[in-house]
Structure formats: structure tokens, C-alpha cells
Amino acid sequence: MFAFPHTEGSTARLDLLVGGTFGACALRAASPALVHRVVCVEERLGALGRELGYEVYVGDPHDPAFAAGDAALSVHFPRILAPALIARYRGVWNLHPGLLPWGRGTHPVFWALWEGTPAGATLHELTAEVHAGQIVEQCEVPVVDGDTGGSLQARVANAERELLERWLPRLAGGERPLATPQPAGGSYHELAEFEYLRDEGRYEVPRAQRERLARCLDFSEPTPCSVTSSEEPS
């Protein structure tokens, strides 16, 4: 577990957009003194946020009734933010469980393991194009022989925790970090690609590769502050 400094008298105007199990862990570890408002679409996260002392908005932030803060940090938030909403903030950042430009889109841990591409975590500027914003910082995570989707995901979650611990207080304090453009290339996958391979396409995989595919799809290991295979990482 990790914890952020509790800044007495903070006037933070950072909205924290959260989703999934990792979002819940971020709420438990952070401090209401660092966050203007927690934004989520899941009532269970809203209830947790209120229990922990946060101001909470449960619903779609695209609703005209939503009052945005000065800046925002997205942590596995399950919705794509529209350009008009992004423009209401002076800066929006996203914590992503992929080593961009590899792993754009959904389920980056699975695709890194299945395709043999780099794995890790990235803090980047959030833009209208999915996972295309400039990179603030990355942590690469090694892939080892015998990894399952769950075992690799656990190490990626650790890397995400490191970035979150380092950057949430700074973003809440008003810092606008330097960022660099993403390198060319990489990979992008839609949710439908993952679901097809998981549910139907696996039967089209050569028999010699089916055992490896099963390992890549195995997210059965419970790992604190990670997401399950049924969730869409941000």
C-alpha cells in the first residue's frame, strides 16, 4: 500500500476521475485534501469516496450540471472524455496500464503478453484521441517466461502505483508537468478484438499456441490495486 501526504489547508482543484479496482485503491490511499472532487460512474466507488471524506460526483461528467475543477487526473475512468469536456480544464492527465505508444486502447496488459510487445505504465496528457497525448513519465515492466495475464498485471499495477504516488500531489498542487510526444509506431486494440479472441477467435489460433493464449487470458490471480479482465483499463 502507498499513501500521499496530507496537506493541511489545501485548496486543491484537481478532479480525480476513477474506475475499477485500481480506482478504489487510489481513493483509499489518497487524501481528500488533495482532491477537489471524485468523479465516477459506479455507485460503489461513490459510496467509498463519501465514506472516505471526499466530495463525490456519481454520473457522466459530460452532463451540463457537472461543475469541473481546474484540472483532472483520470485513473482507470471507464469513459472517453469528449473534447468539449477536456477543454473545460486547464489540464487533464491519464494514468494508463500500458507503455505507450504500445498498448493504446483496451486491455494493454493482455496484448503486451500475447503479442510480445513492451509492457508498463504511463502518465500522459489526455487528448481527444485515445491514449495519444504527450508522455509525462513511464515505468517499463519486464515480461518473464511463464507470465499469466494476472501476474503481469500485478507488476503493471505496482508501476501505476509508483506514478500515482509521485504525481497526484504535484498535479493537485497546480504543477503542469513537462511532457514529450509519443514515439511513432506502437499498437492499438479495440475492446471487440479482445472479446473476439477470448470468446470465439481462440478456436482459430493454432493448437500449439492455445496453451499460451490461455495463460495470457488468465487474470484469475487477485492482485491489490489492479483491474480484472472484465474491466476496461483507461
Q: Let me know the average pLDDT.
A: 89
Q: How can the largest sheet be summarized?
A: 7 strands, mixed
Structural class of the secondary structure composition? alpha/beta
CATH topology: Rossmann fold
- Radius of gyration equals 18 Å
CATH class: Alpha Beta
Shape: globular
Number of strands: 9
Q: How large is the count of helical segments? A: 7
The percentage helix is: 25-40%
Order of helices and strands: EHEHEEHEEHEEHEHH
Number of domains: 1
Runs with pLDDT <50, length 5+?
Answer: 1-10, 226-231
Which CATH-level-2 architecture? 3-Layer(aba) Sandwich
Distance between the ends? 21 Å
Strand content: 15-25%
User: What spatial order of strands do you see in the largest sheet?
Assistant: 3-2-1-4-5-7-8
Summarize this, please?
The chain has helices at 20-29, 43-51, 83-86, 108-115, 149-172, 191-199, 207-216, and strands at residues 14-18, 37-40, 56-58, 71-75, 91-96, 104-105, 119-125, 135-141, 188-189. The chain is α/β, with parallel strands linked by helices and 234 residues long.
